[in-house]
Amino acid sequence: MNLDRFDRQLLNLVQEDAGRTAEQLAEHVALSPSAIQRRLRRMREEGVIVRHTAIVDPQRIGRPTFFIVSLQVERERPELLTQLRKWLAAQEHVQQAFYVTGEADFVLVVSAPDTETYDALMGRLVAENPNVSKFVTNVALGVVKRGLSVPIPLLEEE
C-alpha cells in the first residue's frame, strides 16, 4: 500500500493515542474528519493498522515484574521453530517474542505478577518444547522506556 504524507501523519498520531477522534486528528492533519475516517478505515482494511490497544500503567495494577529472556534452541528445523512460535504466541505472559541473530535464537519480554508465575511459565516452556536447550533470564529493575510505536517518516524515502 502506498502511504502519502497524510497517511503517515495519521499513523504517527494514532500510535501516540488511538483514542483521538477524527475531529481531534483533523486539528493536526489538513484533512476533514470524514476524509480522516476513510483513510483510517482503508489502512485497517489493508492491514497497515493491525489493532488498537490500551497501554496500562504497571504501577497502578500491582507492579508486575518484567523478565527479559534469551532463549536457545537445539535445532532450527522449520517445524520445530513453528511449534515454538505458536506456543510463545499463545502465552498471555509473553508480551513480545523476537527471532534474532547472535548467541540467542529468541528474545522474549515476559510480564508476570511474581517470580513464581514466571518460574511456572518457564517450566512449562521447557517441558512442552523439548527443542529448547537453554534460557537466560534478566529481571528488569526498572522501566526506562516502553512502547510499540514504529517511527514513520513523513516523506517517502527514495
TrEMBL record:
Alphabetical list of InterPro entries matching this protein: ArsR-like_HTH, AsnC-type_HTH_dom, Dimeric_a/b-barrel, Tscrpt_reg_AsnC-like, Tscrpt_reg_AsnC/Lrp_C, Tscrpt_reg_HTH_AsnC-type_CS, WH-like_DNA-bd_sf, WH_DNA-bd_sf
GO process terms (BP): regulation of DNA-templated transcription; response to amino acid
Coiled-coil segments: none
Domain HTH asnC-type: 3-64
Single GO term (MF): sequence-specific DNA binding
Gene3D superfamilies: 3.30.70.920, Winged helix-like DNA-binding domain superfamily/Winged helix DNA-binding domain
Gene Ontology cellular-component annotations: cytosol
PANTHER family listed in its UniProt record: LEUCINE-RESPONSIVE REGULATORY PROTEIN (PTHR30154), TRANSCRIPTIONAL REGULATOR AZLB (PTHR30154:SF34)
Listed name of the protein: Lrp/AsnC family transcriptional regulator
Organism encoding this protein: Luteimonas gilva
